[in-house]
Amino acid sequence: MERTKVAVIGCGGISRAHLNGHLACPGSEVIYCVDIIESRAREKAEVMGCKWHTDYLAILDEVDAVDICTPPHVHAEMTVEAARRGKHVLTEKIMARTLPEARWMIDECEKADVVFMVAFVLRYRPEFELFQQTCAEGKLGQIRQAYIQTQLNMAKPAEWRQNPYDFPMGAFLSHGCHYVDQLQWCVGPIAEAMNMSHALTLNELIPGGDDTNCAIFRHQNGAVSCYVESWAIPFRTSGIRYEVYGTEGSLQLTYRSDGKRLVTLFNSDGENDLFEFDPRKEDHMDAFGGAKDMQGQIKHFISCIQNRDLPLTHGREGIKPMQAVLAAEAAEREGRTLRINDFIERPQNTAEWSEPDFRAWVKETYGYSPE
Ligand SMILES: NC(=O)c1ccc[n+]([C@@H]2O[C@H](COP(=O)([O-])OP(=O)(O)OC[C@H]3O[C@@H](n4cnc5c(N)ncnc54)[C@H](O)[C@@H]3O)[C@@H](O)[C@H]2O)c1
User: Residue 20 phi/psi, 5° resolution?
Assistant: First the structure.
């Protein structure tokens, strides 16, 4: 099999998991690790046994695909530059800072006819796949309600999270997008949104948005759901709690504080564990001693390139959580509930992407101008 030549761009925190995913994928060959910080590019390249560079534009012609692990303010520029040279793109979430910027990425990738995938990694983890499959197979009957809670403690945010031009958002858009994506995937498309949030703990450090929020959604099928999260919980009781309630059964996924992950089905047969991940069991871990969290995602990306398939989380799918979160945030500002379809038709959301307009909006909203 011909291997797909990949450049991983951005060699910071999340890149390690991506690189592990590429190492475990027989169809992938990382030939470049790229970072503007030379030591980071070199260090990752040494582990991968590949070349390194500090300028992604200089190496684009040598690769088939890019895996973008940089902060959100450069996702769009990198995606468009790669697509225009016919390169396939996997980009980390959140795909962009605004809806026009995200649509620019989608349009350019469609024009160039390249594979474009947004890294909603949870969709490719076995426990989340089983969770969705159980919902989709009708094992819960009609789904009426869902609940997700996530807890994190963002004690030292990266520098790019600390200015609202690079990061005009907070926990809900940046992190909550994963879970809003899950709600849409398992329960169905979201029709209406509302939200309450604050930034009482991290406002100084992350001025672009909230650190804590409670959002409520109504789905097109009538079900209601709730997403409760925080980046400011120093004493966590668990990692993720995800529950879906239907007329024939309830389903629970928990990421427990001891590292175990469990999927449990509750129905007329009682309580049955469908899945267990235990970090103490060697065969549950990957070759590097981590959970196999990124392997499915990288395998899917490479397979879509080689078979010319549409990724599960292609651009038009990847923008949906942004639409729902941004609608919920607008609803909070306006003190009401908003319909997603009305929100995305607003002129500022349908406009063409314009960096000067975005810059002006950041200045007006946050009183901040980048150098
Ligand atoms: N899926 C997940 O669970 C998850 C978890 C963490 C982060 N992320 C996402 O991954 C992205 C990166 O986050 P991180 O925590 O790894 O950040 P990070 O700051 O640790 O790493 C980002 C790296 O990108 C490099 N970089 C910045 N601009 C660049 C450029 N123009 N060219 C080349 N390199 C450049 C930086 O030098 C840095 O090394 C973000 O979009 C974030 O939201 C996803």
Answer: -60, -40
Helices (H), the chain: 15-23, 38-48, 56-59, 75-84, 99-112, 126-136, 171-174, 176-186, 295-307, 315-334, 340-344, 347-350, 355-366
Tens of pLDDT, residues 38-53:
999 999 999 999 999 9
Question: CATH top-level class for 4-121+308-314?
Answer: alpha beta
Assign domain 123-286 to its CATH superfamily: Dihydrodipicolinate Reductase; domain 2 (3.30.360.10)
Distance 321 CA to ligand 1 centre (A): 20
Residues with CB under 6 A from ligand 1: 9-14, 34-37, 40, 56, 69-72, 74, 92-93, 119, 121, 158, 174
- pTM, to two decimals: 0.97
pLDDT tens column, 133-148 = 999 999 999 999 999 9
Residues 6+ apart with CB under 8 A from 170: 197, 199, 202, 206, 208, 209, 210, 211, 213, 231
